[in-house]
């Protein structure tokens, strides 16, 4: 790096020659005398001349700028204007190199705009905005610019969390690029999908589906469902696993006396089937920057909103959309940052000045403009954020989630795919977390009394515990105290025993029953399991257990036709392991026994993969438990200490 003077620009947040994985790089640095109050500019020039020069603010020696990169090695000049603080009018120049390596192997985030069938293809905007800035082409440019700002912000945040220069990529195509207002060249740039819906403007603006409407009808198809349906109708690339940021073009603020809210708007994020989707209305899009050259002016402009014409939307920042994208990537609401209300400070990420603030905005002054640690840990192992040298996740572990085991006052958590994060909630608020990013951790033990003391409070709060695995599966205990109490059972012959984490979902209409492999019954002596008959199709319809005293127990229903298979136990043979797939019901399973025999696979392969076996060599399996109605709803194992 060549520096002409101690006042020449110095890049702080990235090393010279470092590799990154996003097209727009956020740069923070110092330039000029550090003990003098002054304002100046830095010009960023590209040696390749593929992108126009851009100019950025310097405020009391601090500067932030957004640098366009081409794939490969980029030679960049940072040129400081010295006139405000020096009689020597010669600019000071720093030459810098950055290597941009696109992560084309990772699934991208698609930027999509939902347009009503009969849309007028304009957005709400203040009267002073030029009519062309309210049209669909301008919205596409603003959305593209915002997508690259999200990307630049996230890449910087992941690096600050110690996870390297990992970031999601945007779906791109070779087309006319709008990131600069100085040219419109053909470049590889973010593709904007125009999703022309089969729904009319009247249907999109229906007050009964507007998120803010006091007359909203909850059982009516909402905007999220309409967006999902429209993506599926569009076809590829939305016909397979995908991640989508969806903008609703036709959102409109209705200021009529009985309305006063935004129709055609919903701020939601999550997923359904193969589509992970975050959606937002277009009512704030007028305030988004259209080009990189607009970023500073947009984020420093004090916009006066005429609330008789436009939505103020609780004074929210124009980049609140990123919150919903976070939900689509798996983030919950967090104690701070973007997934709280931190998007209101997102302007501070990109500028060193803001109105009525006499001090420069340094990285330590960005306040809510950050991804919380829980978000960053999730993204560290997210498929959209993988780096080329990340080890692959074994296909056999791809869908396995964590299991929970009570051992007296200890909670043992096991996950062969690796535990990345444990979160502790009270009333849906994260009060604490433990992350496991340093080592590949497949199990951990927590003291339940310590957790209750730390998070239970004086009112014995209900504590929820959520485990996130490296393969992105999540598994929860909704009430730790209740789970501990219900997991511990007293059996006449065995004394204290425990129920494992169950497969499937509990239906309160059906009671769970216990099936013990061997037990002593006063009138009959020792009774042991002899055979098991499983009836199934895509789900497990029923499981029947037959015992040596000619008794039987059944879980589920055998009223339907289906495949029926039998497994016969030899003398002294018992189940030691269950591999299962489950969601709402038990989709399918197989068993392994103490004689090293395995059954065939019974049922289907939907839902998550799970493995049930005793947590360690100090315990033994003594039975199963489960419940069922129309199908087998739940299945788990019963275990106790050896002896």
From TrEMBL:
<feature type="domain" description="Jacalin-type lectin">
    <location>
        <begin position="487"/>
        <end position="641"/>
    </location>
</feature>
<dbReference type="GO" id="GO:0005737">
    <property type="term" value="C:cytoplasm"/>
</dbReference>
<dbReference type="InterPro" id="IPR053002">
    <property type="entry name" value="Metalloproteinase_M10B"/>
</dbReference>
<dbReference type="InterPro" id="IPR021917">
    <property type="entry name" value="Unchr_Zn-peptidase-like"/>
</dbReference>
<protein>
    <recommendedName>
        <fullName>Jacalin-type lectin domain-containing protein</fullName>
    </recommendedName>
</protein>
<dbReference type="Pfam" id="PF01419">
    <property type="entry name" value="Jacalin"/>
</dbReference>
<dbReference type="InterPro" id="IPR036404">
    <property type="entry name" value="Jacalin-like_lectin_dom_sf"/>
</dbReference>
<dbReference type="InterPro" id="IPR001229">
    <property type="entry name" value="Jacalin-like_lectin_dom"/>
</dbReference>
<dbReference type="Pfam" id="PF12044">
    <property type="entry name" value="Metallopep"/>
</dbReference>
